[in-house]
Specification:
Structural class: alpha/beta
Helix content: 25-40%
Largest sheet: 7 strands, mixed
Low-confidence stretches: none
Strand content: 15-25%
Strand order of the largest sheet: 3-2-1-4-5-6-7
Shape: globular
Number of strands: 7
Order of helices and strands: EHEHEHHEHEHEEH
Bound molecules: 5-O-phosphono-beta-D-ribofuranosylamine
Mean pLDDT: 95
Length: 189
């Protein structure tokens, strides 16, 4: 049984999908949620789904060993970022080398990098009149959205789409594919 920690900064709909998906299987479990945002709705979701949630501040996250200690305590094997907005520091990348994945709501390498998150991404895609967008699941390295790509899935961007309707389509893809891809990658490591 592999133990997964999901890091999230916002609503946490992907975190919820991951928790529910792995609750049904026997090979892995989401045993910890980590957030940097005391107001994130993911905290409420974790409570409702009975998964412990750890709140970290920036200094702790970047400079202390508290998070690593907690990850060890929960015997975490694999880290899944799901709408987590901070850059992952070196000590985590070293400890969990090739065991940290992220999901990005666009077709990387386009529309990635610092500041490209949430509706900023969808607004930029629409402003550039792209015909398609999608999701990218990738390994995490020390740069925003630059690790090796594992999986992509496209969707159409229609002329009537707004950032909100596009976000909805993309969330649909994320919920459909992220848990299964995480399961596959996690089981290979
Ligand atoms: C997702 O669109 C994900 O691609 C991005 O942040 C969003 C998080 O959504 N990295 P949620 O908090 O899981 O609903």
């Amino acid at each position: 049984m592999k133990n997964i920690a999901v890091f999230a900064s916002g609503s946490g709909s992907n975190a919820q999908q991951l928790i529910e998906h792995f609750n049904k299987g026997a090979k892995a479990r989401v045993v910890l949620i980590v957030t940097n945002n005391p107001k994130a709705y993911v905290i409420e979701r974790a409570k409702q789904l009975n998964v412990p949630c750890l709140l970290v501040d920036k200094i702790e996250f970047e400079k202390s060993t508290r998070l690593l200690d907690e990850l060890k305590k929960f015997e975490i094997d694999f880290i899944v970022l799901a709408g987590f907005l901070w850059l992952v520091p070196d000590y985590l990348l070293k400890t969990y080398s090739d065991k940290i994945v992220n999901i990005h709501p666009a077709l990387l390498p386009k529309y990635g990098g610092k500041g490209m998150y949430g509706n900023n991404v969808h607004k930029a895609v629409i402003a550039n009149k792209e015909k398609e967008s999608g999701i990218t699941i990738h390994f995490v390295n020390g740069q925003y959205d630059e690790g090796k790509i594992i999986f992509q899935k496209k969707c159409n961007v229609d002329p009537v789409d707004t950032a909100e309707t596009l976000a909805e389509k993309i969330h649909g893809l994320e919920h459909k594919y992220y848990p299964a891809i995480v399961e596959k990658i996690c089981s290979e490591r």
